[in-house]
Design goal:
The complex is a heterodimer of chains A (about 400) and B (about 290). Chain A is α/β, with parallel strands linked by helices. Chain A folds into 2 domains: about 25-170 and about 310-385, Response regulator (Rossmann fold, 3-Layer(aba) Sandwich); about 185-290, Rossmann fold, CATH 3.40.50. Helices cover about 45% and strands about 20% of the residues of chain A. Chain A is built from 16 helices and 16 strands. In chain A, strands 1, 2, 3, 4, 5, 6 and 7 form a 7-stranded mixed sheet that branches. Chain A has a 7-stranded mixed sheet with strand order 9-8-10-11-12-15-16, sandwiched between helices. The radius of gyration of chain B is 19 Å and the shape is globular. Chain B has a two-stranded antiparallel sheet. Chain B has one domain (about 1-275): ABC transporter involved in vitamin B12 uptake, BtuC (Orthogonal Bundle), CATH 1.10.3470. Chain B is mainly α. Chain B has helices at about 1-30, 40-55, 60-85, 90-115, 140-160, 160-170, 175-180, 185-205, 215-230, 235-255, 260-275; strands at about 130, 135. Classes of the chains: A alpha/beta (about 400), B mainly alpha (about 290). Chains A and B meet through helix 1, helix 3, helix 10 and helix 11 of A and helix 1, helix 4, helix 9 and helix 10 of B.
């Protein structure tokens, strides 16, 4: 009898946890709804829904919010300019965002819901797990995935309606390896984040590093959702006397890892995975001096493109912080999609929109060009001139990539 | 050798934080007779309040910690008054549901008020100290020393003062305590106050070596559950010892066995201890 009671109790707890989790996934439809009313006044205008599914609660919420901010900001700009014209009809954008808590299955369910309720031609999602989940049915349900992940595999599976917005990370392997080997040495310790993405990155870097004659002296992942302190793992890694540390993950905990490595007396260089950004790391370490000898991606605010200062100013006014590439790349992605819809002459024929992405890139106005993207590949990936930076003597220094 | 001593120190640091969190959890266990799932959220609130006091109001680190202890302690009291006290005669499952509800509420609240992003807590004790090839930072020494001081004070309070004894009496037998004239309502509130205060101390001490974010409670709460099971539910010395055992097994396991399996090592240890002493190291029997 007592056993039954316990069993009942535990089953109740689980039911409760799941039901509460379910309640949690509220949808946040963004404020553009108000503007829809204005649209209805004139016969000639319509609304295009843009879907978004990403982590808006939980440990990765800040990341999801930043990516969503980029999409929203671009949409707001288009709407503020009176919408965009396709075949003589004016359209406004309405961003519909759903929370998937960083889970692929939730992303899939959200996308299904978006397709049924809002029929968006494009659904943005900022994590590779979610992108893979959406790729199962996006060609059938007719929507383009605005894929924000530098995982090369997402464009290698042959999905015709996937557009990869950021550059693929394997482009970084060569410049990062060359710089670190030249300046510090051939022994490296791996301490990436414990996500799938981090592990794939590490595997690719390991293969390249060893091909160039280097040696991986320590290899273990850090789970930022479980570790309170990084001294233990760093002590073990530094015991092997590495010249270079490979670190990465979200910027802030990555910065803590770098800081604690310096506290433990590490003098070598860092290879910083593309997920972490120098400017956000600086907010934790206080100055760039701690990060001297690091190589990673160029922070958006330090890029040289002409459109950057104005973009940074506008973003700051709107969201009260400096934009990173999460916001910037999704911002440019959204604008390219709008231009592609214009060029395709359709807001719902997704094959046609995808076919006109190149035209979209070509037509992108100069003041939106915060990144230089000249081409979209056959596979659906934006092709970039990689912008790589190093920290030398407390300053960000651009590194030329050939 | 140097590595061993360095790792023992690392284990001591992390064990101190675990112990402080587990202490609060084990005290409240005496009142609720269930683990308080919301304890991790109190830990997180402690971190945020200390951070806000320092960055927004410019308080000194120590003053910020004191404010945080009071605020989180008060939050604990409110929890007891408005949630657990009305449920005292309900089946235990109701307490569990309520605790999970509070946990979700507080996490969502923190994300709403302070945002989802990681924040960094400054500390006046960032200096690096090197002795005999070992590396400490002042903050880490502070964690170890402060934890020991808090533990001694708590033990003295529980063993040597009248008020402290009433807490122990109530955890042993609620009706009995009531019969000998102890005001159980007051004792329950006091226990929640202390529990919240301990969570605030633990969070404020450990936040400078990590970060402050809405999910930070998850880092420690699961481990604190393991610790109070290991040490014996409701036992104060069990929570202290259990915390250090887990801290050392993590740091030494990561060094001499494998970093990737260090959580498994801690849990294997739990299985071994529970097979030898099924009720935990210091169980008092009864519940």
């Amino acid at each position: 009898m007592k056993k039954m009671k316990w069993l009942f109790m535990f089953s109740m707890i689980f039911v409760l946890i799941f039901s509460l989790a379910a309640c949690n996934s509220t949808s946040n439809t963004s404020g553009e709804n108000d503007e829809k009313e204005d649209d209805n006044k004139s016969e000639e205008s319509g609304t295009v829904n843009i879907g978004y599914t990403g982590p808006l609660s939980g440990p990765a919420a800040f990341y999801g919010e930043r990516t969503l901010n980029g999409v929203k900001m671009a949409a707001d700009e288009v709407n503020a300019a009176g919408g965009f014209e396709v075949n003589g009809k004016k359209y406004k954008l309405n961003v519909v965002s759903l929370d998937d808590k960083y889970l692929p299955n939730e992303a899939g369910a959200n996308a299904k819901r978006l397709v049924q309720e809002n029929k968006p031609p494009i659904i943005f999602t900022p994590h590779s797990g979610g992108i893979f989940a959406l790729q199962v049915f996006n060609q059938l349900d007719k929507f383009i995935i605005g894929a924000y992940s530098s995982e090369p595999q997402i464009t290698e599976v042959g999905n015709k309606l996937t557009v990869r917005i950021p550059p693929r990370y394997d482009g970084y392997l060569k410049p990062f390896t060359e710089y670190s080997m030249k300046n510090f040495g051939k022994n490296i310790a791996f301490l990436p984040t414990a996500s799938q993405y981090g592990k794939d990155w590490a595997e690719n870097l390991k293969a390249y590093w060893e091909k160039e004659g280097g040696k991986v002296v320590y290899n273990s992942a850090i789970d930022f959702t479980k570790e309170t302190d990084f001294f233990t793992i760093l002590t073990n890694a530094l015991k092997e006397k590495p010249d270079v540390l490979f670190i990465g993950g979200a910027s802030e905990p990555t910065a803590k890892v770098a800081k604690q490595a310096r506290e433990l007396g590490f003098k070598g260089g860092f290879i910083v995975m593309d997920q972490a950004k120098f400017d956000e790391m600086k907010a934790v370490t206080g100055s760039y001096d701690l990060l001297n000898g690091s190589i990673g991606v160029m922070p958006l605010v330090d890029s040289q493109e002409a459109a950057i200062p104005d973009f940074v100013k506008r973003y700051n006014e709107k969201y009260g912080e400096n934009p990173g590439s999460e916001a910037g790349l999704n911002y440019i992605g959204m604008h390219v999609f709008v231009e592609a819809m214009k060029a395709a002459g359709s807001v719902d024929d997704v094959e046609k929109i995808r076919a006109n992405m190149q035209a979209g890139l070509d037509n992108l106005p100069d003041d939106k060009k915060i990144y230089i993207v000249n081409k979209i590949g056959e596979d659906g990936g934006f092709e970039f001139d990689l912008s790589v930076a190093a920290v030398e003597e407390g300053k960000i220094v651009p590194i030329k990539v050939d | 050798m140097e590595i061993l001593i360095q790792q023992l120190f690392n284990g001591l640091t992390i064990g101190s934080v675990y112990s402080l969190v587990a202490l609060g959890l084990t005290l409240v266990y005496g009142i609720l007779h269930i683990p308080n799932f919301a304890h991790g959220a109190l830990y997180m609130m402690g971190g945020y309040i200390t951070l806000t006091m320092m960055t927004k109001y410019g308080f000194h680190y120590w003053i910020a910690i004191i404010v945080s202890i009071l605020v989180v302690g008060l939050l604990g009291v409110l929890m007891e008054r408005f949630v657990f006290h009305p449920l005292r005669d309900a089946p235990p499952i109701h307490d569990k549901i309520a605790a999970i509800g509070i946990l979700l509420f507080l996490e969502a609240f923190a994300q709403f008020v302070w945002g989802a992003e990681y924040q960094s807590m400054p500390t006046p004790y960032g200096q690096v100290v090197e002795i005999f090839g070992l590396t400490f930072t002042m903050q880490r020494l502070l964690i170890v020393i402060a934890a020991i001081v808090v533990m001694i004070l708590l033990t003295l309070f529980l063993k040597k003062t009248f008020t402290g004894s009433t807490i122990i009496a109530m955890s042993q037998n609620r009706e009995g305590a009531n019969l000998v004239g102890i005001n159980t309502k007051k004792v329950a509130m006091l226990t929640f106050m202390i529990s919240g205060g301990l969570a605030a101390i633990a969070a404020s001490l450990s936040a400078p070596i990590n970060l402050v974010f809405p999910g930070m409670g998850h880092l420690v709460i699961l481990k604190a559950f393991v610790i109070i099971i290991l040490g014996g539910m409701g036992s104060v010395p069990g929570a202290i010892l259990g915390g250090y055992i887990l801290g050392f097994s993590e740091s030494l396991g990561a060094t001499y066995i494998s970093n990737d399996y260090k959580d498994i090592i801690a849990f294997v240890l739990l299985v071994i201890i529970l097979s030898v002493k099924p009720t935990g190291l210091f169980s008092k029997g009864g519940h």
